[in-house]
Specification:
The complex is a heterodimer of chains A (499) and B (108). Chain A contains 20 helices and two strands. With 499 residues, chain A is mostly helical. In chain A, helix 12 runs parallel beside helix 17. Chain A starts with 7 loop residues before the first helix and ends with a helix. The chains are: A mainly alpha (499), B mainly alpha (108).
């Protein structure tokens, strides 16, 4: 079993999706199966995390072909951490979706599992072309999930989302081709080795291939010039799907981090640090434009979507500051994902309870259980802005600590936090304090409110757990960052496995 | 030979990008198709252009690189499926938005 542990998080959602496709019309059976499958994936993710927490790097050779000829799956601390975040987020999303969202169209749970399949594969694969394939798997699942439920707004945003991402896939193929043409390999560890020995006439090809890869990942991560597709697409889709999509931009950031530390990391000779000059300017500019978007958002969903962009920018900035920055970034990655997903779920819940005003930031009828929802919004806003006492504050503190001596970073990060604080405070007072009607004719709680509360409570619990367990989590992320900073162990584990 | 292949890839890419910037969904879908042809052709050349040689064995000292051919096969399958998806989505958009403009605006 331990020999196959690395591939288990990839196979589990794939098989679950196949079984769900076969299991007929029973709604409750599909919900139970899907939830159980995600629970199993959580357990697998925890097992994998424990297995790699001692610093070991697990390599799984598909078909037992030795690298660089065969495709390998590689689990290190970073990959296991990303998978754990994904599965925990997916658990909350599937609980919320089982409250009725999954009935707005067909095959919701199948696409959901395929999405997880693509995500797990993208985090674990050790091969550049295989990364492309898993990107396509997760993208086609995300197209179907984004369009789930139909409607004009969803279709309009979906068309842009699909076409842009297909263009991104074409660029990815050009980039992978250039890397293969110049370095003669697509195995990630082998790329790092060959990059150091690349011939002078191929240097330009390798550089342009690498920077095209950065462009593709920047599109997926919604960094500055390539971000306008995100707010409409995320705002138009259903709440649980938007919550799950909070991790999709992180796939792009994960790939940038992998490229920054491994493919073009310290061992890459002439083209080492290819991504390095781009991280800080792109990150800070993205934070800036994201903060403006947050301020301009007309409804809570769009506000959450712009917060995704702010968190992308913050993460990229953090990744530019060596081990300390990456460690802070990996902690922030978990927090940022959960906080934004929480805001999406909350926006969905509010929309269901305000039939006329939806989640537009304007006064409307009073919510049922006013105090409860207001309290949840308050806690969510604290988490999303990064105020004490929740984990967002700790994460931002760690990032700023890593960026000591960089006043521009401090100014941008703190100013963006202030702008988000103003926007969220204004939204909260518009929706919760500024009641237009008295409460007697307040709406009643819709069906399956308990599932919504369970999902939202689960995400809040995760954020509280990140806060309470900050010590061990930061220790882990520091260890993961240290492992990334020295790619020689990764390379030895992959290439050594072939000998 | 190199110049011819490079010209073909360049023309396909250029036409693909031009069509993708059009305002109707049908030219956009065509542009994506041309762009995927360009990437497929480009992937072939990444193993360097070799004429009349078998891949792997039996070709003496010079053989064609078989890996790009495997990559192209994968890329063709994926781009074919994605093109089909875009066309269906464009049809859905045509019906739901009552327009084939990419922003769903303007007269149909």
């Amino acid at each position: 079993m331990t020999a196959h542990l690395v591939i288990a998080p990839v196979l589990a959602p794939f098989l679950a999706g196949a079984v769900l496709l076969l299991c007929g019309r029973s709604v409750s059976l599909r919900r139970v199966l899907s939830t159980l499958a995600v629970l199993l994936q959580c357990a697998l993710a925890v097992t994998l995390l424990v297995a790699v927490s001692d610093g070991g790097i697990l390599v799984y050779r598909l078909g037992d072909w030795p690298p660089p000829w065969g495709i390998v799956l590689v689990a290190d601390r970073l990959a296991a951490w990303m998978i754990l975040i994904t599965t925990l987020l997916a658990l909350c999303a599937v609980v919320q979706a089982s409250g009725g969202t999954d009935q707005q169209g067909r095959h919701f749970h199948v696409f959901f599992q395929m999405q997880l399949f693509g995500l797990a594969g993208a985090f674990l694969t050790g091969d550049l072309f295989n990364l492309f394939v898993f990107f396509e798997v997760l993208l086609i699942a995300s197209y179907c999930l984004q369009l789930h439920g139909g409607g004009a707004a969803r279709t309009r945003a979906g068309l842009h989302y699909v076409v842009l991402n297909l263009l991104g896939s074409a660029v990815f193929l050009f980039a992978a081709g250039l890397i293969y043409a110049s370095l003669g390999t697509l195995n990630m560890a082998e790329i790092a080795v060959r990059a150091a020995q690349v011939a002078a006439q191929d240097l330009g090809l390798a550089r342009s291939g690498g920077l095209l890869l950065l462009t593709v990942f920047a599109l997926k991560a919604a960094l500055l010039p390539l971000l306008l597709w995100l707010p409409p697409a995320y705002a138009a889709t259903t709440a649980p799907v938007a919550a799950l999509f909070a991790i999709l931009t992180k796939v792009g950031l994960y790939a940038i981090l992998r490229g920054h530390t491994l493919w073009f990391g310290v061992e890459a000779g002439e083209i080492a640090g290819l991504f390095a000059p781009w991280l800080l300017p792109l990150g800070l500019a993205t934070i800036g434009i994201g903060a403006i978007g947050v301020l301009a958002a007309p409804d809570l969903r769009r506000l959450a979507a712009w917060l995704v962009i702010v968190s992308s920018g913050t993460l990229l900035t953090a990744f530019g500051f060596g081990i300390d920055g990456t460690a802070a970034g990996l902690y922030y990655l978990a927090h940022g994902t959960f906080a934004v997903a929480l805001l999406f779920l909350l926006a969905g819940a509010i929309r269901r309870r305000r039939p006329v005003h939806g989640d537009f930031l304007e006064p409307g009828i009073d919510l049922p259980r006013h105090g409860l929802w207001g309290g949840i919004y308050f806690a969510t806003a604290i988490a999303a802005v990064g105020l004490p006492p929740l984990s967002g504050f700790l994460a931002k503190f760690l990032i700023l600590q890593a960026a000591v001596g960089q006043p521009l970073v401090w100014v941008v990060v703190l100013a963006a936090a202030l702008v988000c604080l103003i926007a969220l405070a204004r939204s909260g007072s518009q929706m919760f304090l500024n009641k237009r009607t008295a409460s007697p004719d307040a709406t009643v709680e819709p069906e399956s409110a308990s599932r919504e509360l369970l999902a939202i409570g689960g995400l809040l619990g995760l954020i509280v757990a990140l806060t309470v367990g900050a010590g061990p989590v930061v220790d882990f992320s520091r260890a993961a960052a240290a492992q990334l900073a020295d790619p020689s162990a990764y390379i030895a584990a992959v290439i050594g496995a072939g000998r | 030979m190199e110049a011819l292949v490079a010209l073909a890839i360049g023309t396909l890419t250029g036409c693909g990008i031009y069509l993708m910037l059009r305002t109707r969904t049908f030219p956009v879908a065509l542009g994506l198709t041309l762009l995927s042809y360009a990437t497929n052709l480009f992937l072939f050349t990444t193993g360097r252009l070799v004429m009349g040689r078998p891949p792997l064995v039996g070709g003496g000292s010079v053989t064609a690189d078989p890996l790009p051919q495997a990559l192209v096969l994968t890329a063709i399958v994926i781009s074919f499926a994605m093109t089909a998806f875009v066309i269906v989505l464009a049809l859905v958009a045509r019906v739901e938005l009552d327009s084939d403009h990419v922003d769903g605006a303007g007269s149909p």
